[in-house]
Design brief:
This protein is mostly beta strands and about 400 residues long. The chain folds into 4 domains: about 100 residues, Immunoglobulins (Immunoglobulin-like, Sandwich); about 100 residues, Immunoglobulins (Immunoglobulin-like); about 100 residues, Immunoglobulin-like (Sandwich); about 60 residues, no CATH class. Strands 19, 20, 22, 24, 26, 27, 28, 30 and 32 form a 9-stranded mixed β-sheet that branches. β26 and β27 form a beta hairpin.
Amino acid sequence: MVFEVSKEPFVAFSPTSLNFGNQTVGISSSPLAATLTNNGNLPLTITSIQISGPNSSDFGQTNNCPSSMPPYSSCNISVTFTPAATGNRSAAVSVSDNAPGSPQSILLSGVGVLPAVTFSPTSLNFGSQTVGASSSPRLITIINTGVGTLTVASIGISGANSNEFAQNGNNCQFPLPSNASCGILVTFTPTAVGNANASLTVTDNAPGSPQTAPLTGVGITGISFSPPTVTFPNQYVGTSGLPQTVTLKNTGDAVLTITKVTASPSDFAPLSSCGNSVVPGATCSIGVFFDPTTSGTRDGVLSVTDSASSSPQTVPLSGTGQDFSLAPSSSSTATVAPGQAAKYTVAVAPGGGFNQTVTLTCSGAPAQSTCSVSPSSVTSTAPPPHLSSFQ
């Protein structure tokens, strides 16, 4: 019996399949290699090596295989996986040649996965903060709760009041593997009194990018006054009544330096016990006097100049000056013959709500004459008194 040995090339792969496992969508894997060996006894002629199959665009290959391979020689085929979508992805490396069963294939498979961004806490509320002063840094943690690797293009602050919030450092190293986390420190420095809103914004390869965490805070002056306005009781013009007390409180978190306490106009005058500085949380008193210079409503302002960015702070002041005027209601001159009398009428007019009794006297009459007033006292609503008797 005669045995005839087949003379032909023969293709063998090791391994016969490549499985890339989980791979982040859009990111290329590390390469996996397979060895192609000509196990036949004739040269192997390769006409093409290419990727084929349902997800062929997700895989790429490079190789060092010559077009003609002697018997029992080998070459390497290197494959990478860059999934374009989530889920199972498959293809094959197809080698077209002169060996039986051409084309031969290496099966390729992998799973496209995506990262997911979670913030902890989901937002930062800085509460009340003195205008112009920076808060203590607050930590917000980024967690990759997805399966894929997280890559970040940028981390920033956005929103209506983005200039009032700032990153104050972080320990983030990207890309961030699944279940890994890193922290970002954020500060709040209000530029004005009132509510401030912004967001920490992370632009990345996770679904829903950019992800945001709300940032909020309230700018305050660092000073509060109690009461916020002062109204004085009616006061006679040219006299000072009892002072009204205004309590100043440092509501900020830094020492408040006071450089000047004033009141205007000159109808009002302050007397401060606050000194040059007030520590956080402390209070001091400012006495304000009302000495009206004229009758009627008098409006003013207590002003405190200090180290707060909203300086000076003010407290509105108001009071009413009371007074009366005295004037002749008829001719103020006359020629009087010896032994005769002249009579003059004088009007008393109230100002600023004055309703008190006015006592009148007469003096300075010409030589060898006398004068008297009738009646000798009036209220602001009584008939005008009569000045009489030059005798």
